[in-house]
Amino acid sequence: MKPAGFLCKIDKLGRIVIPKPLRKKYDFDIDDTIELFTEPDGIVLKKYGMSCIFCSNSDNLTEFKGKTVCKDCLEQIKKSSD
Known about the structure:
There is one protein chain. The longest helix has 10 residues, at about 70-80. This protein is α+β, with helices and mostly antiparallel strands. It has two domains: about 10-50, Pemi-like Protein 1, Chain: D (Ribbon); about 50-80, no CATH class. The model has no long low-confidence stretch (mean pLDDT about 90). The chain has helices at about 20-25, 70-80, and strands spanning about 35-40, 40-45, 60-65, 65-70.
């Protein structure tokens, strides 16, 4: 991971403030939903957006067994099960 050059403290309620330059750079806005991912050496924040669990495509999405999948990956799943 690349250092961002900011230090933030966790408050008594467990919150941190994402500095304005980072919010602007990554297009985080008030009331946006942020995903948290764990890595062996820390946490990654990402702006939430529906996307395919296989290819990260955000077009032509559908639900398959409770997961979000694009139509192209769904077709590949169907072909592989034949």
